[in-house]
Amino acid sequence: MLRNTRCLVVGLDEDGRVAELNCPWGDCEVDALRVGEPLPESLVAVLAAVPPEQAEQHFPFIYLDETTVVDVYVLGPAAERKLILRDVSEAHQAELKFQQKAYEVSLLSEKQA
pTM for this one? Predict the structure, then answer.
């Protein structure tokens, strides 16, 4: 199961830039993340929402770019913080399709009533 999971561990330097990228279960590459470059704005906002003393936080369905959606797990205190990004792009697209279908059914029900 883990081999089919696209996860990326992101290490940060003291300036909040990407210091390391590690994909423990296979090959996964995210265009929005490069070593030595700043984090995307969405991840900067996630980190800003976590209190410095908090060691663990989960943020579901965060967009890294137009097509990549990840669950973000923030681990460790601020000085040693790491991010685990789990690719949920396919699941998110399926959820959006389901919501659209439910909305269409709701409109049809209202129209028939």
Answer: 0.74
List the Cα angle 2/20/54 in 5-degree steps.
80
> In 19-61, which residue ranges form alpha helices assigned H by DSSP?
41-49
Mention every residue, 6+ apart, whose C-beta is less than 8 A from residue 93.
none
Domain that holds residue 84: 2-112
72: helix, coil or strand?
A: strand
| Dihedral sign from CA coordinates of 34, 52, 77, 2 | negative
Task: Please state the domain count of the chain.
Answer: 1
Report the distance separating Cα 60 and Cα 111, nearest Å: 34
Report d(CA 61, CA 27) in Å as an integer. 21
Residue-wise pLDDT tens digits, 31-56: 788 899 999 999 999 999 998 888 78
